[in-house]
Design brief:
It is built from 14 helices and 15 strands. With 398 residues, it is α/β, with parallel strands linked by helices.
Length: 398
């Protein structure tokens, strides 16, 4: 087993934006070693500097603060200097680099980690406003990576031919947390006055949502209340469908989600079928199921397989079919659903996922250290007077 090391994660996300895959994994990592989560920079007044704070669960969250007005090359140079400063100030010497964004290669390629991990949770190049150089950066990162994880089957299939050590780790679930949604919970104040039935979604409201589908669902069943929870990103909030029975409650903290779910009759995955959703594997799918909800989704590949194929989620593409699927979900017997869902979820946990990932990372670190140690042996042998052409060395063997 390799000796102790720190983990430095370079991400395109805000740690406090939405609790998802990075938080579930890195919080568990932080129970074993120091973890530094480096966010994308913020811009404002003042000189370039680091904002460093410790999360309640032990992760050190780092945000580079850069002056407004820098050109792209200056931004990269500033991030490089600040990353080097972080390593010095925090005395980070033995560390693993963990990437969520290939773009971070531009300011970190000079580093010499014990091992490099690339955890692919999205196909970022397909997202709106994706940097032009992202594909080239990913190619470089795949060359540098010792191990690659993917967050879904579709991503695994897209990356497995590009690296010799790609491992599939689909979205898992904190069953204990979301099972609270199966029990009576205090109805949150903003939801309390809504009549039933209620159909809900939580997640980021962005270009991946099928806004026409949401509007069509609301119009087809005006007595249904559609609850949308989450922050809006990369789209104008004014472009979200507005109907009397569609309710936008904004972002909620992770601890509140089971309370909202407990008051829903159906949980929704109303994603558009476009480039941005081609490779997604929504973490909320098993979370909805753990909360005891009937789930209706558009035919997202990583929802169809395995959830649709196992009869755990209803799949519908058109507005008409989606409405019909929601009608069927409302009439579904919960006891029969639990009998299908619970054995499936029993094989999923973030703790199990992290344990398997940690083993692979330790193996990568140990392999790197073995290569370094092996490479240094000839030099040590020469220094000791043992080598080709010396008594006892290879030169004496015939």
């Amino acid at each position: 087993m390799p000796a102790s090391y720190d983990l430095v994660c370079l991400a395109h996300l805000r740690w406090d934006f939405v609790r998802q895959r990075p938080q579930h994994l890195l919080n568990r990592c932080a129970r074993e070693r120091r973890v530094f989560f480096v966010e994308e920079p913020s811009f404002g007044d003042g000189p370039a500097r680091l904002d460093v704070r410790r999360d309640a669960e032990g992760v050190t969250v780092v945000r580079p603060l850069l002056p407004t007005g820098l050109d792209p090359d200056e931004i990269i140079a500033a991030q490089r200097r600040l990353l080097d400063l972080l390593l010095v100030e925090q005395e980070i010497q033995r560390y693993v680099l963990w990437y969520y964004t290939p773009t971070a290669v531009s300011f970190s390629r000079h580093l010499e980690p014990l091992a490099t991990v690339y955890d692919v949770m999205d196909e970022l190049s397909a997202f709106a406003l994706a940097p032009r150089a992202l594909r080239a950066h990913e190619a470089e990162l795949l060359e540098r990576a010792d191990v690659v994880f993917t967050g879904g089957q579709s991503l695994y299939e897209a990356k497995k031919g590009r690296h010799p050590r790609v491992h599939l780790f689909p979205s898992s679930v904190d069953v204990e947390h979301f099972c609270k949604g199966r029990e009576p919970q205090p109805d949150p104040l903003d939801q309390r006055a809504l009549p039933r039935p209620r159909l809900g979604f939580f997640g980021v409201l962005d270009e991946r949502l099928d806004r026409d589908l949401i509007a069509g669902l609301a119009e087809a069943r005006p007595n249904w209340q559609i609850v949308m929870i989450g922050p809006t990103a990369k789209i104008d909030p004014a472009d979200l469908p507005r109907r009397p029975n569609i309710h936008y409650f904004g972002p909620k903290v992770y601890a509140e989600l089971p309370m909202y779910l407990a008051g829903w009759d159906v949980a929704l995955l109303p994603f558009a079928l476009n480039e941005a959703t081609r490779f997604i594997s929504p973490t909320k799918t098993p979370e909805y199921l753990a909360a005891g909800k009937a789930v209706v989704s558009t035919p997202i590949r990583d929802v169809v397989r395995p959830y649709g194929e196992h009869g755990l989620v209803r799949i519908a593409e058109t507005i008409e079919r989606f409405v019909e699927a929601c009608d069927a979900a409302l009439a579904e017997d919960a006891t029969a659903r639990f009998a299908r869902v619970d054995p499936f979820l029993s094989q999923m946990s973030w703790a199990r996922t992290w344990s398997q990932m940690a083993r692979l990372i330790d193996e990568a670190v140990a392999a790197r250290e073995w290569v370094v140690a092996t490479a240094s042996e000839p030099a040590l042998a020469v220094a000791a007077g043992v080598g080709a052409g010396t008594p006892g060395g290879e030169g004496e063997r015939r």
